[in-house]
Design goal:
single chain, mainly alpha
Length: 341
């Protein structure tokens, strides 16, 4: 009884197992069919053969920030930037010394102007008045040289002017030299201003190059910009040496010569006054009227006989005419021998 029951159980289990296997196979086939219907059919192609890259071809590993080739050693670029920073600092220090030199030149020019103006005031006359007076007196010399000795004896001032002709010429030359020295000192100041402007331009260019080093990544370009900054520093240093060693002694020499020449002018003016030629008085006469033109003409007009009116005036005019007629012949005869009558 027990054996048949066990046989029936075994058969039942085998049937269940077979049913499960068949159902699983059916499910797998349906899934495969669905995938085949859903996925597109791919064409079979030959596989591509990829060529190996050459070992010397390198890919760029830096950013192209400026649109140029910025490849290089960024660490070295940093070194050049630090060097440029130090060079630019030296440029700023040099330009401070340049500015101090400019102020010293301006101060020296103001001091010499004050000293020369004080000495010029002792002359009373301005340089323009002195030159006009001397030119007028030298014109008298040319007229005086054509006169005879007798005329010079009657005109002591003309004789004095003729005797001091050389001093008058020297005084005129000294005035011209002093004006030239004054122009040279002004030109030296203009030269200083030009040199200072050059230094300011060099500093501005160095600043632009220094900023450019900070923007680039190429160490070779940074190196080139650094040496440009160094060249600007050398140019400024040469200008500073020129202002200190070359131009400054020359400028001091101009100032010393101007003071010495002005002292000589003062001495000459004093000597001429002692010799009877007062340039201050002569300048006043020139302003009031020519010494030997308007004044002489006025005197000649005052010496002309004035015709008188009335009966008694008519008699006097006739007597005067008779007197001139009588004295005319003796004056001519004595005039031939150089004797005034």
């Amino acid at each position: 009884m027990t054996l048949p029951i066990l046989s029936l159980c075994l058969l039942f289990n085998v049937a269940l197992y077979a049913n499960d296997m068949i159902s699983s196979d059916l499910n797998e086939d349906s899934i495969v069919d669905e995938q085949q219907h859903d996925e597109p059919i791919l064409e079979q192609t030959e596989p591509e053969i990829v060529e190996p890259q050459q070992a010397d071809v390198l890919m760029p590993n830096t950013l192209n920030t400026l649109g140029a080739d910025d490849s290089g050693n960024w660490v070295l670029k940093r070194v050049w930037w630090e060097k440029a920073e130090d060079a630019f600092g030296k440029i700023m220090a040099l330009n401070l010394q340049i500015a101090q030199q400019q102020m010293e030149y301006f101060s020296a020019r103001n001091e010499i102007d004050k000293e020369l103006d004080g000495r010029k005031r002792e002359l009373i006359l301005t340089f323009d008045d002195l030159e006009k007076t001397i030119t007028h007196l030298l014109g008298l010399v040319e007229k005086t040289e054509s006169l005879g000795e007798l005329d010079l004896k009657n005109d002591s001032f003309r004789a004095s002017v003729l005797e001091n002709k050389d001093q008058l010429i020297k005084l005129k030359d000294d005035l011209s030299k002093l004006s030239k020295l004054d122009s040279e000192m002004d030109q030296a100041i203009i030269n200083v201003i030009d040199q200072v402007q050059k230094c300011n331009d060099y500093e501005a260019r160095a600043w632009e190059d220094f900023k450019q080093i900070g923007r680039v990544l190429n160490d070779e370009l940074a190196k080139s910009l650094y040496y440009q900054v160094v060249n600007y520093r050398k140019n400024i240093k040469m200008i500073l040496r020129y202002l200190k060693s070359d131009l400054h002694p020359s400028f001091e020499g101009l100032m010393a010569r101007a003071v010495t020449l002005l002292d000589e002018i003062k001495k000459t003016v004093v000597q001429l006054r002692e010799n009877g030629i007062d340039l201050v008085y002569e300048s006043k006469m020139i302003h009031e009227g020519a010494r030997y033109s308007e004044q002489a003409e006025a005197q000649s007009h005052s010496q002309k006989p004035v015709k008188k009116t009335g009966i008694w005036g008519a008699v006097q005019n006739i007597l005067g005419m008779l007197k001139d007629l009588v004295l005319w012949l003796p004056r001519k005869l004595f005039g031939l021998f150089g004797i005034k009558f």
